[in-house]
Design goal:
By secondary structure, this protein is mostly helical. Helix content is 60%, strand content 7%.
Length: 161
């Protein structure tokens, strides 16, 4: 039997999305923006002048963005079924928004991890919320590109040792 995903499973991914949506409230976020902002939320240290990352650096994190979409969708569905996240259809497509009970749930959670997520979500929404999708994608591409380059240098150095 496969053990349940604790990290990056539906519960955690939904919680992170809920935190981002609550910080963005009353504005909604589409799925792609949530995927990118979630990456920036946990890897905030990859951004110049960003707060320390909550998740440790990993050589596989550049690939995280590619698989993150389905994980975020599962989390949104889980929290949506509990009445904490709603889908709204507008002229631009489907957006997700935090529902009324979201703040009460998050206020009841007091772990260091949740506190760190909330602090970083405030930073992420303040810094990237006003940007266009293209501008956010550029920041993400530059960050991942810079990180891949740094990893390639380290990997090449290890190969010559």
């Amino acid at each position: 039997m496969t053990p349940p995903l604790v990290f990056n499973g539906p519960v955690e991914m939904g919680l992170r999305s809920l935190i981002l949506l609550l910080e963005a409230f009353p504005y909604g976020l589409d799925l792609q923006r949530l995927v990118v902002l979630d990456y920036l939320l946990v890897h905030s240290g990859d951004i110049a002048n960003g707060p320390r990352s909550l998740h440790p650096p990993s050589p596989l994190r550049a690939g995280e963005v590619a698989i993150r979409r389905g994980l975020v969708e599962h989390g949104l569905h889980l929290y949506g079924c509990r009445g904490l996240i709603a889908r709204q259809l507008d002229a631009e497509g489907i957006r997700y928004v935090a529902e009324e009970g979201a703040a009460a749930l998050l206020d009841a959670l007091s772990s260091n991890y949740v506190t760190g997520l909330r602090e970083r979500a405030e930073w992420v929404i303040e810094k990237f919320g006003p940007l266009t999708d293209e501008e956010v994608e550029t920041v993400l591409s530059e960050t991942i590109g810079r990180w891949r380059t740094e990893f390639a240098v380290i990997e090449g150095e290890e190969a010559t040792l």
